[in-house]
Design brief:
This protein has 577 residues and is an alpha+beta fold. The chain is 44% helix and 11% strand. It has 18 helices and 23 strands.
């Protein structure tokens, strides 16, 4: 007998009082200009509170107006918020923060860091900011986007993660010590997303630096997961990276798995890779066959397809946006509307929602200001123009401001039933939630460019077109310009030959200008410094001066930590605490 959901009818929506001047729920679409300014004000309330009370710590604690390190002591909120500053139009602050990060962030520290989180937040944030630097008026060095200080920082951070991939399977550990490497005795159990969420950042890094190692390890990890799927085409949510054996066998689209599917699609688009898209489409068939019920997605046993958890997780709300990227708009909208009913029931998305019962799951009633439903609304609004999607944006602004806003920023909602708050503001609030809200209400933002405008830049390899649109957001909402991946692709030998030719060209050009200006004769040499194109010899000397790169492996998926006991027994959750 097929499993059927009993969806409770008449979910009550506690309407929040609307801000003065905001369009009401009377059928009229929310005014984008009004909410754009509201979102911008939200950003600066949170951002200024972080700078005043928490910097240089990773994140703000808004209830006590201080800061704490959470993911590695990187001033993480500053990195995560950097490209949001430019999207909001704040060029001067973007430029200031670039200088601050160069002066203050150090990856040679004795800290155990999540491989997954460091990649999506730090490597992704630095790569995005690097590629947006010229648009933000930063004086870029010769050879950009194939060189630059933020790119070098991203590469340094990524190299700290590479030892995690040195396993028999090629699938990475979850955690790495940035100074000493993988700790002895580190658990080999890693979540699926922690293995399959590297191709966007690492392929971009390989393309810009010319070092294939990053893309290579990301592809191997993706392929090992693909080869580990069950006979019915599903993957579980935790696997032993040493043996390749599944430890947690619940299959779904949410916590522990989510961004693996996301990166197959985004990696396929970014790299124009048909194989990655074919892999996702095969998964999509299995997902629809075994986990899809009445436009919800449940958790099932990966080998049998039997339902283990009839639960909706807030992290699953990215799925309609992903569906829109493959053109499946009708299914995306139906699923989005289901998720939206949950938002309207609580004024946010609880971490876990029991679908048959129509209510939250014990110990998972909170809403840490996650972006996923807003992200899907942004994608779907770009695809359809449906005003219902703007209404979600309006409801999100009203809910977050009413429930979460405090004197020092915005606090995680510990319990949506009684609006109790928790003393944390995660960096993704500024990286993702606010960014997607702003882009939802800003249809003319440069991120939405349709190719009608672009910038042409000269690289050591010829002319390169950037800023034409088609940005690919990593899973932390850091936009990557896909055109940039084609700006720097040359063998090192070719690169040096071209750099020598360009050095000679610019030397002659500058000499001519100098002679015309001074009317003096004599030899002229280009000044040494960061603006000088390097020869192979200088390149080697620079490499020798760089500090040795520590390599290590480890990972955790703390945003939604499944335990192996939970997943094996099919229970909703068992906390160790």
């Amino acid at each position: 007998m097929p499993f059927r959901l009993l969806i409770p009818l008449g979910l009550l929506c506690a309407l929040l009082p609307l801000h003065h001047g905001a369009p009401g729920p009377d059928g009229t679409a929310p005014d984008p200009a009004h909410y754009r300014e509201r979102v911008k004000a939200m950003f600066y309330h949170a951002y200024d509170s972080y700078l005043e009370n928490a910097f240089p710590y990773d994140e703000l604690r808004p209830l006590t107006c201080d800061g704490h390190d959470t993911w590695g002591s990187f001033s993480l909120t500053l990195i995560d918020a950097l490209d949001t500053l430019l999207i909001l139009g704040n060029i001067s602050e973007f430029q200031r923060v670039v200088e601050v990060l160069q002066d203050n962030v150090d990856f040679d520290i004795d800290v155990n860091a999540s491989v997954f989180e460091t990649n999506i937040r730090v490597v992704g944030g630095l790569l995005s900011a690097h590629l947006l630097s010229k648009k933000a008026g930063v004086e870029v060095e010769a050879g950009w986007p194939c060189s630059g200080p933020l790119l070098r920082m991203a590469e340094e951070a990524a190299r700290k993660l590479l030892p995690a991939f040195q396993t028999p399977t090629g699938m990475p550990y979850g955690t790495v010590n940035l100074l000493h490497g993988v700790n002895p005795g580190e658990t080999p159990v890693t979540c699926t997303a922690g293995i399959g969420t590297f191709i966007v950042e690492f392929a971009t890094l390989s393309s810009l630096t010319g070092d294939p190692v990053f893309e290579d390890v990301a592809r191997v990890a993706l392929m090992r997961l693909w080869e580990s799927r069950s006979d019915i085409g599903l993957v579980g949510n935790h696997i032993d990276v040493l043996t390749g054996k599944w430890v947690a066998q619940d299959a779904g689209i949410g916590a522990g798995v989510d961004s693996y599917f996301e990166y197959l699609v985004k990696g396929a688009i970014l790299l124009q890779d048909k194989k990655l898209m074919a892999m996702f489409l095969e998964y999509n068939k299995a997902i629809r066959n075994y986990t899809h019920f009445d436009d919800w997605y449940l958790w099932v046993q990966m080998y049998k397809g039997t339902v283990s958890m009839p639960v909706f997780q807030s992290l699953e709300a990215y799925w309609p946006g992903l569906q829109s990227l493959i053109g499946d708009i009708d299914n995306a909208m139906r699923t989005f509307l289901n998720y939206y009913t949950v938002w309207k029931q609580f004024g946010g998305l609880p971490e876990f929602y029991n679908i048959p019962q129509g209510y939250t799951v014990e110990k998972r009633e909170g809403y840490p200001l996650r972006p996923e439903l807003i992200e899907s609304a942004m994608y779907l609004y770009r695809a359809t123009g449906d005003p219902t999607l703007l209404e979600l944006g309006r409801d999100a602004v009203e809910s977050i401001e009413k429930i979460s806003k405090v004197e020092c920023g915005f606090a995680t909602i510990k319990d949506l039933r009684d609006h109790k708050l928790d003393n944390r503001m995660e960096s993704f609030f500024l990286a993702e939630t606010v960014k997607y809200l702003y882009l939802l209400f800003d249809p003319t933002n440069f991120i939405h460019n349709n190719g009608s405008t672009f910038d042409a830049v000269i690289t050591p390899y010829g002319e390169c077109v950037l800023g034409a649109g088609g940005y690919i957001f990593n899973t932390e909402a850091h936009p990557i310009d896909p055109a940039a991946l084609h700006c720097c692709r040359r063998l090192k030998e070719e690169q040096w030959e071209v750099e020598d030719l360009m050095r000679e060209f610019y030397s002659l050009k500058r000499r001519s200008r100098f002679q015309k200006k001074t009317m003096r004769s004599g030899p002229w040499e280009p000044p040494a410094g960061p603006g000088t194109l390097s020869s192979p010899e200088n390149h080697d000397q620079a490499k020798e001066k760089q500090p040795a790169k520590q390599k290590t492996p480890l990972l955790s998926c703390p945003s939604q930590p499944f335990t192996s006991k939970l997943a094996l027994l099919g229970q909703v959750f068992l906390d160790s605490s």
